[in-house]
Fold this sequence. Notes:
Elements: E1 2-7, E2 10-13, E3 18-26, E4 33-40, E5 43-51, E6 58-60, E7 68-73, E8 78-83, E9 92-99, H1 102-106, E10 112-113, E11 117-122
Parallel strand pairs: 2-11
Antiparallel strand pairs: 1-3, 3-8, 4-5, 4-9, 5-6, 7-8, 9-10, 9-11
Amino acid sequence: QVQLVESGGGLVQAGGSLRLSCAASGRNFSGYATGWFRPAPGQEREFVAAINWSGGGTNYDDSVKGRFTISRDNAKNTVYLQMNSLKDGNTAVYYCAAAVTRSTLITGRALNWGQGTQVTVSS
Length: 123
């Protein structure tokens, strides 16, 4: 079982940057794919970004490609989401999630979820 705690959210002006962190505890975190999600109309959560267990493979929703970067430091049991060129539409609670594989995670079938961190972008 892996426990996930997000941090780093806050209020930022449009065009600014934030870095979210997801700190994990529990066994074998380095063996899990990890990702970020946010709420969306008509669905519980929508996919934002994912990274495989080694950090060698990543996926992004088209709306954040080129602006967001996901990374991980397995020595620190932490996954990051660097968010640049933020827009009003990026305002949301961002949730960290973990799954056995990246393909499973992208579909939202995570094994574990964090409690979320609020990101608010002001224009």
